[in-house]
Amino acid sequence: MERTINLCPGIGASAHIIQHTELLFPSVYFEQPHLYLVQQGHKRVRWQQHEVVAHAGELLIIDGGQTVDIINGLSDEGVFSCQLLICDPLLFHLQQTPDETAPPARFDAVLALRNLPCALMHSFETTSLALALKQRFPPIIIRHKMLEILLWLKQFNISFIHNEARDLTQRVRRCLATDPHNIWTAAKVAESLSMSEVVLRRKLSLENTALRNLMIDVRMSSALTLLQSTDWPISAISQHVGYESSSRFAERFRKRFGFAPTAIRGHQRIMEPGAIQPYRLSLMEAPE
C-alpha cells in the first residue's frame, strides 16, 4: 500500500513515517496533539532545556501548541519508522467519563510512555487501520476508535484540552495551514480573522514575527510532514505547498531545516503523479 496521510475531519489523522537519514528538525510547531508509536529507531524531542526520548515499542506524545526540536534516530538497520495518530480537538470533551467531576489532568508538553499494555498497542494499530481504510468504516466507528485511544491515555492521567490560540501568531498559523498552496495576502488573512490589515501587521510585529515568515514556515512544515509520511514525488510536494519551481522549493526547505528534501527520502520509491490526492495538513477549518 502506498503511503499517504489519512485524514478524517472532526476525528483525526494517521500516517506511517519513514526516514533513512538521522536529521535534526529545529523549531517544529504542533497545532494538534501528536502520538508517535515508534517502530524502528528512536525519537528524541528537545524543548526549553528538556529532552524526552522514545525507543521502539514506546509511545511519544507531543501536546498541541508546542514548538520543539526533533531528532529521528535510526535503527541498526538504518531506518526510523513510526505510526502517527493526530487527535482532532473536537473529541477532547468526550475524554471525560460520566462519573468524573474533577478537571482533567495535564502533562508538560512532551511525554514518553514505556511498557505499554498490549491492549493499548492493539487499539493504536486498529485505530490507524480504520483511518487508513476510512472508505470501509462508518465515520462513527472511526470516531469511537480514536476516542478509545484518548480514554486509554486517561488511564495514564493524560488528557488534552482544546485551548484557543494564545496569540495572533498561532491564529495566523492555523489560518495559513488550511491551504498552504494559497497565496495569502495580508488583506485576505486579516479578513479571515475579522480585523484590519493594519491591526494584523501591528500585532504580528508586537509578537516579533511577520506574515511572510509565517507563510514560509507553514509551507515548509507542511512539506516536511508530506516528505516523511507520503510517497508523493518531491515535485508534487513542492507544488502542493505553493512552489512551481522544485529548485526554489528545495532552496527554501534547505534554508529552513539545514538539509535538502531528498535527505529524508533515501531510497524510498515514490507514487505516480496521477495517484496524488489533495490534502490539507491542518485538521482545523479556516476561521470564519
TrEMBL record:
InterPro entries: Homeodomain-like_sf, HTH_AraC, HTH_AraC-typ_CS, Tscrpt_reg_AraC-type_HTH. The keyword Lyase does not apply. Residues 170-267 form the HTH araC/xylS-type domain. SUPFAM superfamilies: Homeodomain-like. The keyword Transcription regulation applies. GO terms for cellular component: cytosol. It comes from the Bacteria. GO terms for molecular function: DNA-binding transcription factor activity; transcription cis-regulatory region binding. Keywords: DNA-binding, Transcription, Transcription regulation. This is AraC family transcriptional regulator. It comes from Serratia inhibens. The lineage of its organism: Bacteria, Pseudomonadati, Pseudomonadota, Gammaproteobacteria, Enterobacterales.
